Amino acid sequence: MTVKDFVLGKTVWRESKRQTAARPRLRSLGTGDWLAAVSGVILAFAALCALFPGWIAPYSPTSMEADRVLLPPGAAHYFGTDYFGRDIFSVVVYGARDSLLIGVASVLAGGLAGCIIGAAAGIAGGVIDLILMRFIEIVMTIPGILLALAIAAVLGPNLFNMIFAVAVSMVPGFARVFRSQIISVKGRAFITAARSIGMPAPRIFFRHVLPNAWSPVLVMATIGLGTSILTAAGLSFLGLGVVKEIPDWGTLLSQGRGYLTVAWWISTFPGIAITLLVLSGNILGDWLRDRLDPKREQR
C-alpha cells in the first residue's frame, strides 16, 4: 500500500464517518411515547364520534324499544340499554359531541382571554400588572368547579352558558402562566437587542416574544381540555347542563345513578368515557411538556 492509497482510504473513512454522524439517530419509543400515541388515538376516536356519530353508532340515540328495557351488555347492545330501551353505546357516541364541544370551546375562550390578560400584565408592568394580577388572585380563591357552578346556576342551563361558565373558571391559570412567560422572555438579551435597533414594540411582541412563550400555554390547553370536560360533566350531573333530547355524558351519569343496583352499565360506561378522555388529555399534555422543554436531554 502506497502513501497515496493510505491517505485516500483515510479520507474516504472520514467522509463515511461524517455522513454516518450526520444521519438522524433513530430513538426507540419509550413508555411515554406509547402512552401518548394511545392517548392520541382515544382523542381522535372521540373527535370522530363527535363529528360523525352516525357512522359509529349502530342505533339512533332516540330510538326506544319497550321490549329491550334494561338489557345487559351483549352482542346486540355493546353497552346495554337504559330504562327507555335506548342503546347506551349509541347515546354515549352521540353525547360526545356536546362534551367535546364544551371542552374545546371553553379552552379556546378561556385560554384566549387568559393570554390577553397575562400579556397585558406582563408587557405593561407597574400598576396595570398589579391590578390585573390582584384581580386574578381574587378569582383564584374560588375553586374552578365552584365558580363554574355559580355562573351556570345564575345564567341557567344552556350550551353557551355552559361554555362561558367553564371558560371563566380557566382564565386565571392561563393568565398567570402566560404572564410569567412574557416576563421571562422579555428580559432576555435578544429582546434588548431588538429594542436597541429601534424595532417597534408590536413587532417585537409578535415576532420574538410570542413564539418563545406559547409552548407552556399549548401544554396547559391540552391538559385543560380534560379538566373542562370533567367540569362540564359535573355541571350536567347536577342538572345545570344542556337540556336536550340526546343527553351528554354527565346527564347520562345522573340518569343512571338511580339504577346502579339493577343496571350498573347506564352510569358505568359514560363514566369510563369521561375518565379515558380526561386521562388521555393529561397524558398528551405531559408528553408535549417533555417534548417542548428546551432543557430536555437530547438522546
TrEMBL record:
Entry's transmembrane regions: 34-56, 100-123, 135-153, 159-178, 217-242, 262-285
Compartment(s) of residence: Cell membrane
Keywords of the record: Cell membrane, Membrane, Transmembrane, Transmembrane helix, Transport
Domain (ABC transmembrane type-1) ranges: 96-285
Membrane-topology annotation of the record: Multi-pass membrane protein
Stored Pfam families: BPD_transp_1, OppC_N
CDD domains listed in its UniProt record: TM_PBP2 (cd06261)
PANTHER family: D,D-DIPEPTIDE TRANSPORT SYSTEM PERMEASE PROTEIN DDPC-RELATED, OLIGOPEPTIDE TRANSPORT SYSTEM PERMEASE PROTEIN APPC
Family, per entry: Belongs to the binding-protein-dependent transport system permease family.
Name recorded for this polypeptide: Dipeptide ABC transporter, permease protein DppC
Organism annotation: Thermobacillus xylanilyticus
